């Protein structure tokens, strides 16, 4: 299917850019430890579901937040790596995979996108919020594309699959992402970042 080929090629391009970023910003041992810790916290929060949807969706206890904080504290390369690890950890809780390309979208790319939260700067609340909002939006967009390509058969009869996928993903991952950003604004990010960097 041509759509699957396009998605695979897009994924390859993403990983090439990721590899270039890793070469420019190599991960220290302490950053790797931070990646493991934040991804593990995200996974533990992911296990706490407030609302569960069919096909694996739902709203969890701010599970997106640790990866966004990781990116804000240590930079987008570290954040994207944490998102990758977080996505792989989700496999431990059971998966809903209908196609290898759907796995790439829902478990790899959507979670890696969260690691871009720190890409727009973190010296002001506005920049931090813009980065977090764009990261969440990209993550949800990837899930919407997955829903259109692989889960159209679950849409109600007569409903456009794009509308169905938007409703499904925005009301789950989208809502959780917005709630995570709101909660993030109550945190003393500058102090937490200084503490995180001091320990690195």
Automatic annotation (TrEMBL):
The chain crosses the membrane at residues 5-21, 33-53, 65-89, 101-120, 132-155, 161-190. Keywords: Membrane, Transmembrane, Transmembrane helix. The keyword Cytoplasm does not apply. InterPro entries: Thia_Transptr_ThiT. Pfam families: Thia_YuaJ (PF09515). Gene3D superfamilies: 1.10.1760.20. This is Energy-coupled thiamine transporter ThiT. It comes from Clostridium sardiniense. The gene is thiT.
């Amino acid at each position: 299917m041509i759509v699957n080929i396009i998605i695979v090629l897009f994924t390859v391009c993403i990983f090439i850019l990721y590899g270039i970023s890793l070469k420019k910003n190599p991960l220290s041992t302490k950053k790797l430890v931070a990646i493991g810790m934040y991804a593990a916290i995200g996974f533990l929060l992911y296990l706490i579901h407030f609302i569960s949807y069919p096909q694996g969706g739902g709203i969890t206890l701010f599970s997106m937040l640790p990866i966004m904080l990781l990116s804000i504290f240590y930079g987008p390369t570290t954040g994207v790596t944490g998102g990758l690890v977080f996505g792989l950890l989700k496999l431990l809780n059971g998966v809903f995979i209908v196609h290898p390309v759907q796995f790439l979208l829902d478990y790899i790319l959507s979670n890696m996108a969260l690691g871009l939260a720190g890409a727009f700067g973190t010296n002001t609340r506005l920049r931090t919020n813009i980065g977090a909002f764009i990261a969440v939006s990209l993550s949800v967009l990837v899930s919407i594309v997955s829903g259109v390509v692989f889960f159209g058969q679950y849409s109600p009869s007569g409903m456009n699959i794009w509308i169905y996928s938007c409703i499904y993903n925005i009301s789950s991952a989208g809502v959780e992402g917005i709630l995570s950003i709101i909660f993030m604004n109550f945190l003393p990010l500058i102090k937490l970042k200084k503490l995180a960097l001091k320990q690195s």
